[in-house]
Amino acid sequence: MELFNSVESNVKSYCRTFPEVFHKAKGAKLFNESGEEYIDFFAGAGALNYGHNNGYIKERLINYIQSDAITHGLDMYTKAKREFIQKFVDSILTPRDLNYKLQFCGPTGTNAVEAALKLARKVKKRTNIFSFMGAFHGMSMGSLAATSGIGSRQGAGVPLDNVTFIPYPVGCMGNIDTIQYIETILTDDHSGIEKPAAIIVETTQAEGGINVTSVEWLRSLSELCNKHDILLICDDIQVGCGRTGEFFSFERAGIVPDMVVLSKSISGYGLPMSLLLLKPELDIWTPGEHNGTFRGNQMAFVAATAALEYRENTNMDKGTKEREEFIKNFLNERIKPLHKDFDIRGIGMIWGIDFSLLGGEKSSKEIVTRCFDNNLIIERAGREDVVVKIMPPLNIEMDVLEEGCKILEKSIIEFLSNSEYGIAIESKIEETV
């Protein structure tokens, strides 16, 4: 660790939670240099929905590289891009009756968010954006302005303007009728808040603490945007690509956002790629008005095409829902009874255990540390990081999923047995793993 600690910047974060040197990975498991095995309930922060080194995708990628096909293409026409576009249209857009144009952005999600916000302002000729408390949309200046966490915002060094934050309907201020609140802002000539070009929303806040909105609220938000001529942008970077049970997280509500932002698992293999979907009438860009050197990641196109095939070949949505049922039942039947103050919530294969009433950040941090000591990689989210976030690869084997859940249970029992928040229940530990 000495080399990393002495040379690498202090900005590093995840390695502080998981202080181990990893060397190999396969499926839902990582291996350190000595071969020790860890179950992965983190999935590259949502970038590895298909697992580490997915065999189907890897074979396609290797064949492409060995053929000396083009690897860097800016936004030139290439065979790899054409095949991805055709597959995405045929497998994702057409079956859902969605008519979107595709804009290939820079290599990370924040760049696609930047593109969406820039285009919304250009189309509507308004400067303001509505975002939600608890939102995370990226770390570059425009997307950071729409991100609510003070810890992230403090790194900007300049004022982050032209965004108004609205209470989210779930979580810290979930008792507020946010739709009526927005309606009041828009119709009150003394609200002091400018009408926005767009409202950007995560249908489930991931970094915000696994806050899942209702179908009814999403429909009301969509109707409000239509009524007031405001664009609706859905940020599906972390909870899209099947994470919530369907490819797009908004499908359950039957709405059609004006723009959709994808990244992380769209590439299928953890390769850098981001994508903005936009309704055709919004495509008023001039050539090169939003560009980037690496918006043509050919290997990501190849992997993304293979990933869409893999989804179909394995009936992934069905498998995700089966695993969702297992996780939900395990958390409610095995974890929740351990303490009356646990709040468990989630959808698809993203779930959280909220420790707000059980020691908060100190407790959640100890749980994650104990999990790592027990060979489970799991992260935290939410205000003050009080939510332990469960987010394994979507195709994790059922026995590995069960083993990981048992490690989580064991770690929580260990914590409760040695803290002021629970009674001595060591006898249960041996039953869990």
Poorly predicted runs: 424-430
> What is the number of strand segments?
17
Main sheet makeup: 7 strands, mixed
Please, how many domains? 2
> Strands across the major sheet, in which order?
4-12-11-10-7-5-6
Derived from helix and strand composition plus strand pairing, the structural class reads: alpha/beta
What's the rounded overall pLDDT mean? 94
What proportion of the residues form beta strands (DSSP E)?
Answer: 15-25%
Pathway: Amine and polyamine biosynthesis; ectoine biosynthesis; L-ectoine from L-aspartate 4-semialdehyde: step 1/3
GO molecular function: diaminobutyrate-2-oxoglutarate transaminase activity; diaminobutyrate-pyruvate transaminase activity; pyridoxal phosphate binding
Keywords: Aminotransferase, Pyridoxal phosphate, Transferase
Cofactor: pyridoxal 5'-phosphate
Polypeptide structure, described:
It is built from 15 helices and 17 strands. The protein has 433 residues and is an alpha/beta fold. It has two domains: 56-313, Aspartate Aminotransferase, domain 2, CATH 3.40.640.10; 316-387 and 400-432, Aspartate Aminotransferase, domain 1 (Alpha-Beta Complex). It has a seven-stranded mixed beta sheet with strand order 4-12-11-10-7-5-6, with helices on both faces. Strand 8 (204-205) and strand 9 form a beta hairpin. Helix 5 (79-93) runs parallel beside helix 11 and helix 14 (398-417) runs antiparallel to helix 15. Its cofactor is pyridoxal 5'-phosphate.
